[in-house]
Design brief:
about 475 residues; globular; about 20% strand
């Protein structure tokens, strides 16, 4: 337990009902939710409506306080799970709230999963506030989300872009009692950390993964096999990069992909790899598709010379944070929350914060960035959509530009790559960035306490049509 966080006896703590993925699983949402629960359990009691598509323990109420005690270092945490399919429904939520009587309801993931919660907003906010740890991948500012955001008393934005989007969407609303707060994703920097090149465990791990062969340069990808991750573009960029080298040097390069080989939401990577690399570069691609422990993941990051993520829509990019904490440089598309992690500077030399005038840096308005980052700028910003989400930019970068970034990293010496990566870690754990679990917990506690100190129950209510909203028109610049 961090001693700087005020300890409150269990029977005196406020209780938060958290609706999100089951915090025991390994999704990005669950990972961050668990970090928040573990980091704040000395100050709040927690109940997790623990969602899954087809939850194997649906209907059960589980006490995971003992496991939380072990991770947090306290002796009296109170953490319970209600295992549900999806994210519950109105009847389940009503019953759980009656039994648990929470002091706040907290949501974490896409708002469309919480229609039943927003439909009960008038009822819930007579009893307690609604906190939303939210994210939105891209512009234009989604005015169609206004009824959802307006239903919340505290909007945590996980990226600077998300905070700006929340404010733009609610520009026409009364925000006098609403709190907007930047809460970037934070991970335990004692779990993800740099290893020295002479570390015996790392040496043995490299021997195993490279099958005893000499390797001079390693590119690493770690994320899901889904279309927006643009994995085939990364593979194509790596193939062209290999072609630019003499054969003897190309043979000492590897691309490790920790992802599923085939999925319906992505593609058949085995077919892509066979087509692009064939017999010419048969040893160049290493697939890792089994679940790995945190320790093994840390070894993979330390094996890599650079991490790559060319996603066309990315709210944050948690694997980029993991790379930074391990001292690994990053090649990333300039979109969403990945911009935060590259630390672009505005014309005043400050860390770029989106505004109505310059809502994003995906047009490459600012070029100065952290030395650990090798950005790729989108060359196509196409508006896509669906009936629930009628418009959103799809920021696609050119794979040819990714080739140049790979070459740039390759041409650096090992010492230079290491120095740049370590600068990334130093910044990530700094007071400015605060990408650590400890900083995340501290900001969360302080902001939620502010909410509790000032929140007043709704005395009356209004019926809101969730398909209608006040601000229907574009209210920020498109060209900047």
């Amino acid at each position: 337990m961090n001693k700087s966080f005020k300890y409150i006896p269990k029977d005196k703590r406020k209780k938060i009902l958290l609706i999100c993925d089951d915090i025991r699983v390994h999704s990005g949402v669950a990972t961050i939710a668990k970090e928040i629960v573990v980091g704040t359990c000395q100050h709040f009691n927690w109940v997790n409506i623990a969602g899954a598509i087809k939850h194997p323990e649906a209907g059960k109420r589980l006490d995971i306080s003992a496991a939380t005690n072990k991770e947090s270092g306290i002796e009296d945490s109170s953490v319970f799970l209600y295992c549900v399919n999806g994210y519950s429904n109105s009847l389940e939520l009503h019953n759980i709230m009656n039994m648990e009587k929470p002091d706040a309801v907290m949501l974490f993931t896409d708002p469309r999963y919480f229609q039943h919660v927003f439909n009960m907003e008038d009822q819930i906010r007579k009893q307690c506030p609604i906190i939303y740890l939210n994210i939105w991948d891209d512009y234009p500012a989604p005015r169609y989300n206004q009824p959802y955001y307006e239903s919340c008393d505290l909007l945590f934005g996980i990226s600077k872009q998300t905070v700006n989007i929340n404010k733009l969407v609610l520009e026409d609303c009364d925000n006098s009692n609403r709190i907007f707060k930047y809460l970037p994703h934070g991970l335990n920097h004692k779990h993800y950390y740099p290893l020295n090149s002479d570390d015996k465990t790392l040496i043995e791990f490299k021997k195993h993964i490279f099958k005893g062969e000499e390797v001079d340069f390693t590119l690493f990808f770690n994320s899901r096999n889904i279309r927006r991750k643009q994995i085939p573009d990364a593979l194509l960029a790596f193939r062209v990069f290999l072609d630019s080298l003499p054969k003897e040097k190309a043979d000492k390069c590897r691309f490790i992909l920790h992802t599923e080989l085939v999925t319906d939401h992505g593609t058949d990577l085995s077919a892509v790899i066979e087509y692009l690399f064939g017999e010419s570069y048969s040893k160049s691609i290493i697939m890792s598709n089994s679940k790995l422990s945190r320790e093994k993941l840390n070894l993979l990051y330390n094996t890599a010379d650079v991490q790559v993520l060319l996603t066309s829509n990315e709210g944050w990019g948690l694997t980029i944070t993991e790379a930074l904490l391990t001292g690994t440089p990053i090649i990333a598309n300039t979109t969403g929350g990945m911009q935060d992690q590259m630390r672009f500077e505005n014309n005043e030399g400050e860390w770029f914060t989106p505004s109505k005038e310059i809502p994003s840096n995906h047009r490459g308005t600012f070029k100065k960035h952290g030395k650990w980052a090798f950005p790729v700028y989108p060359t196509s910003r196409s508006i896509q959509g669906s009936p629930p989400t009628p418009y959103i930019f799809d920021d696609r970068c050119a794979w040819e530009d990714a080739v140049e970034r790979i070459k740039e990293v390759y041409e650096l010496s090992n010492d230079e790559r290491k120095e740049r990566g370590l600068a990334g870690r130093e910044w990530a754990i700094s007071e400015e960035a605060q990408f650590t679990a400890e900083a995340q917990a501290k900001t969360f506690i302080n902001t939620v306490n502010e909410l509790f100190d000032n929140w007043k129950p709704r005395e009356d209510y209004e019926i809101v049509n969730a398909t209608d909203y006040k601000g229907k028109f574009l209210n920020h610049k498109i060209l900047y």
